[in-house]
Specification:
With 418 residues, the chain is α/β, with parallel strands linked by helices. It has 14 helices and 14 strands. Pfam families: Peripla_BP_6 (PF13458).
């Protein structure tokens, strides 16, 4: 019965996709990190992420840095099956045509996997499907929905479930009435449906539901609309710049929640008191809790080494959830590749992934890649656990809001049952 309830949410929550994470810095397309062969020719893998893009679009050089740091450490451990790993980066520039070209490049260059992909538009998966190449650790926000439906895709970064959990997080923080703010565009509207379902699950129907043109620059009227409706909290379905603008306009009298990784600690620090009631909701504990998680300690160690070697994008100030997700994709690759008895190819890796159960990568509950999520349109999301982190102005870092781990599927089932 529970699975039927979850599946019944299809009309409200599928066909999702929104890029919320943005930062600056330039990058190049199609660059390659070479590694010398040991025990045979290098094994090639690819990461896809936009870099050097204009303001307003996703720009993820720090994600590429995280994959690169993980590959460097993997090679120091002996690579895969005694062979070194060569990383290729393809810049999709937030463009569907470029993304499709990245997929074809992966095929042409004979990569065995695409790891840590961040693609707003989608379009990479069709080429991977035709060649039997898996995508490991995609962010899952592609506009075409392919990352969450393709049998070649393995997603554990469930920022979409973060939006479902945000109303519950805000309610438990004491909010009596919760609004939402999103862009008035199709992709944003789809994600906003998840927020509405989350409001129902929390027993706090979303009001007001504010939709804005992407070009909005004055957020004072938005703050006034929240106050007029009596909302003391708001879920933000918006990228960093607009989220910051609203928080500065509405101030500390309102509590805020966005998906994990949407706002950097640098931005939160710059806002002063306006950020004191900010929460993020997503799959990973914050970096401030690294002493409790060996995987976060390893992430920091490998990123420190990359920064020391000259990669400025691996710096502490640039590390966030999308970086952790990208780094973890290489850990998944390594763990699964160990179980392959023959040659490591795209097809052998894909076959092994599709029979992998109880995969433990530490920061999320053990995953079973043989059991798709029972919601059409979200089948390839293999982790639906959500944590809440809160901004601590005194220490200028995100810290765990509590030890509670929410289950996004359960919240959706509760929304359906109310």
């Amino acid at each position: 019965m529970r699975n039927k309830k979850r599946a019944g949410l299809v009309g409200a929550v599928v066909c999702v996709g929104l890029a919320l994470s943005a930062c600056s810095d330039d990058g190049s397309s199609g660059d390659s990190t070479e590694s010398s062969a040991s025990g045979g020719d290098p094994i090639k893998i690819m990461t896809v992420a936009p870099v050097g893009t204009s303001a307003g679009g996703a720009n993820l050089p720090e994600s590429v840095a995280a994959v690169s740091a993980a590959v460097r450490a993997l090679n120091e451990r002996g690579g895969l099956g005694g062979r070194q790993v060569e990383l290729v980066h393809c810049n999709d520039r937030n463009d569907a045509t470029a993304a499709a070209d990245c997929g074809q490049q992966a095929v042409d260059e004979g990569v065995v996997a695409v790891v840590g992909m961040y693609s707003q538009t989608g379009g990479v998966l069709p080429a991977l499907e035709s060649a039997g190449i898996p995508s490991i650790g995609s962010v899952g926000i592609s506009g075409d929905g392919s990352e969450l439906t393709s049998r070649n895709s393995f997603v554990y970064y469930d920022n979409l479930m973060g939006f479902v959990a945000c109303p519950t997080v805000l309610s438990e923080s004491g909010a009596n009435q919760i609004g939402s703010m999103s862009y008035d565009i199709a992709a944003s509207a789809r994600v906003a449906q998840l927020v509405l379902a989350g409001g129902v699950a929390a027993g706090k129907p979303i009001n007001p539901e504010i939709k804005l043109p992407p070009a909005t620059s004055d957020y004072a009227p938005v703050a006034a609309q929240l106050r007029s409706a009596g909302a003391t909290a708001v879920t933000l379905v918006s990228p960093e710049a607009s989220s910051v603008a609203l928080m500065q306009a509405a101030g500390p009298s309102v509590s805020y929640c966005n998906a994990q990784g949407a706002l950097s600690e640098a931005s939160l620090t710059s806002m002063g008191p306006a950020a004191q009631n900010f929460y993020e909701s997503g799959p990973f504990p914050p970096l401030s809790a690294a002493d409790r998680y060996p995987e976060l300690q390893q992430f920091n160690t490998e990123m420190d080494a990359a920064e020391a070697s000259g990669d400025a994008e691996a710096a502490v100030a640039k590390r966030k959830a999308t970086s952790i997700n990208a780094w973890l994709s290489v850990q998944v690759l390594e763990k699964v590749a160990r179980e392959i008895s023959g040659s490591i190819t795209g097809q052998s890796l894909l076959d092994q992934l599709n029979k992998t159960t109880n995969l433990d990568i530490g920061l999320v509950p053990p995953m079973n890649f043989t059991q798709p999520t029972p919601i059409p349109g979200l089948e390839r999301m293999f982790n639906t656990s959500v944590r809440a982190n809160k901004w601590d102005a005194a220490s200028r870092q995100l810290v765990p809001a509590s030890d509670t781990i929410y289950n996004g599927l359960e919240l959706l089932a509760n929304a359906q049952g109310r």
